[in-house]
Specification:
CATH topology of the largest domain in chain A: Multidrug-efflux Transporter Regulator, Chain: A, Domain 2
CATH class of the largest domain in chain A: Mainly Alpha
Structural class of chain A: mainly alpha
CATH architecture of the largest domain in chain A: Orthogonal Bundle
Oligomer: homodimer
Number of domains of chain A: 2
Order of helices and strands of chain A: EHHEEHHHHH
Largest interface: A-B, 63 and 62 residues
Radius of gyration of chain A: 23 Å
Shape of chain A: elongated
Amino acid sequence: MTYSIKEVADMMNVEPSTLRYYDSMGLLPGVKRVNGRRVFEDKDFKWLRVLNYMKKINMPIDKIRSYVELAEKGDSTLQERFDMILEQKEIVLGQIDELKKCLKEFEYKEWYYTEAIKAGTEKVVENVTSCSPTLEVDTIPKN
Amino acid sequence: MTYSIKEVADMMNVEPSTLRYYDSMGLLPGVKRVNGRRVFEDKDFKWLRVLNYMKKINMPIDKIRSYVELAEKGDSTLQERFDMILEQKEIVLGQIDELKKCLKEFEYKEWYYTEAIKAGTEKVVENVTSCSPTLEVDTIPKN
DNA sequence: ATACAAGTTAAAGTTAACTTTAAGTCAAGG
DNA sequence: CCTTGACTTAAAGTTAACTTTAACTTGTAT
């Protein structure tokens, strides 16, 4: 089974131009051409899938490319790739942790506004939310 | 207690220029000035904290600003703010869910490379990872 | 045969979120 | 008095990740 760039783009929910861009960045190795046109095969979805979850964790394209390049080199890079995967796994764990903390803040705000709406004014809950600068402010991530 | 822009920047782990930028975007309402210089007070950390977790969930600055603007209008916007918070809470839940799926992929890859390294070659596990295009590829998020 | 839809490239344009630069103000120390 | 360091603004520059454009080719339908 083969697929046109449009078909793959639709499956992946991106624009064809995005796939061309990924290809030009070296993220889609080994995609066949027929008359200059990209023809996607089942094996290409292996990479598309990898691309998919690597992008979801906000891995920069340059880093994804280096992983792809390692994979292209074959068995001699197994350890390096393993190390990269482990590192990214830790990053995902950290991201999940951060988001869970944020979730708590939103749940708190949900309660806060529920109470405020009940009372018709924020004054009723404002005192509860006063924060000490040092204790409650954790770091804003650089990006 | 008051703080200079540099002190706050250090606490928040951002550049002073970033705080000026946030201020210029309307994200830091009510910061005092003395001789034209920003002087942060404890009450300002309430907003910095909100800014902090809103940025962590990748809420765009424009959307944060509209929340800040609603808050500035007072009690008449309580319901609107509640709705925004609820919406964002759902978004965070979705993000956590996505990341958990990604985590599984990385854990799988961890196992994959562990086996491959043991065997000295990927061939041993390659067949396990063949994917059907439709079943295993879920959508790449637009951004 | 011819028009049209879908593909191609290279290069320029876009957007968000900062960051840097240039030119200036101000308070404190020597 | 003068220098230094930390602040100020407005405006220009940066970066990543696309997206659009322009000019062109190709396969399919009428």
